Amino acid sequence: MSSMQITIVVVAVVVVLLSAVGAVFLYRRRGLRARFGPEYDRVVSAQHGRGAGERELRERERRHTDLDLRPLDPSSRQRYVAAWEEVQVRFIDAPDQAVGKADVLVTELIAERGYPTGGFDQQVADLSVEHARPLDQYREAHDIHLANQRGEATTEQLRQALVHYRALFTDLLGTEPAPPSTIDPTPNRERQPHAPIH
User: Fold this and answer.
1) Spans of the chain below 50 pLDDT
2) According to the model, what pLDDT value does residue 129 have?
3) Where would I find the beta strands (DSSP E) of the chain?
4) Mind listing the pLDDT tens digit for each residue in 152-179?
5) Which has the closest alpha carbon to 130: 80, 41, 63?
6) What is the DSSP code string of 58-70?
7) How far is CA 67 from each of CA 74, 115, 122, rounded to the nearest angstrom?
8) 172, 80 in Cβ contact below 8 A?
9) Integer Cα distance of 163 and 161 in angstroms
10) What pLDDT sits at residue 175?
């Protein structure tokens, strides 16, 4: 075999290896995109680079395997469905209180499913592995809840917060809790900021 033939074989092997490595990275990237959905773009943007963002997402997957996650038993599921119905009914007369209760109820459900509930950012990171789709809505609901505690949320914002909480609640519950029709504010309700909940 001549040196030219050896060079061609070596170059061909290197090209095949590089193609295989590239295919593996592309496969992993597609897997992360599919699993995390919009959260993929958010994390990559926040980490200032695709490599750092993907490392963060893989780290989330590793942490997720250490969690003691559990499904809800039928009685717990029914209890949460009933509690959510109460939140929706409460919204008609006290939207600010209903949003506060929705925040508590979602946090309780997160905990009962086995997710840590210490800090909001870590909680969202842990949820992102299996519940990435409704996380933007959950973040927005949480922001409105905080604005509500400061007395800065309008009735329309509170209604939107309840709709957003419902998205994660439903995803964690694995089923629709109740028809959403009861969370629309009454037509004559003023759209002014509410006082904080004490």
Assistant:
1) 181-198
2) 92
3) none
4) 999 999 999 999 999 999 999 987 665 5
5) 63
6) HHHHHHHHHS---
7) 22, 7, 13
8) no
9) 5
10) 73
Question: CB of 39 within 8 A of CB of 132?
Answer: yes
**Closest C-alpha to 183, from 78, 94, 104, 105:** 94
Q: How far apart are CA 147 and CA 150, in angstroms?
A: 5
Instruction: Say if residues 194 and 157 touch (Cβ distance below 8 Å).
Output: no
Phi-psi region of 12 (alpha: psi -120 to 50; beta: other; left: phi over 0): alpha
Amino acid at 194: H
Which residue type does 147 have?
Answer: A
pTM: 0.73
Dihedral sign, Cα of residue 34, residue 39, residue 41, residue 44: negative
pLDDT of residue 44: 87
| Residue boundaries of the structural domains of the chain | 3-66, 74-183
* Residue 7: exposure state from Cβ atoms within 10 A (0-12, 13-18, ≥19): exposed
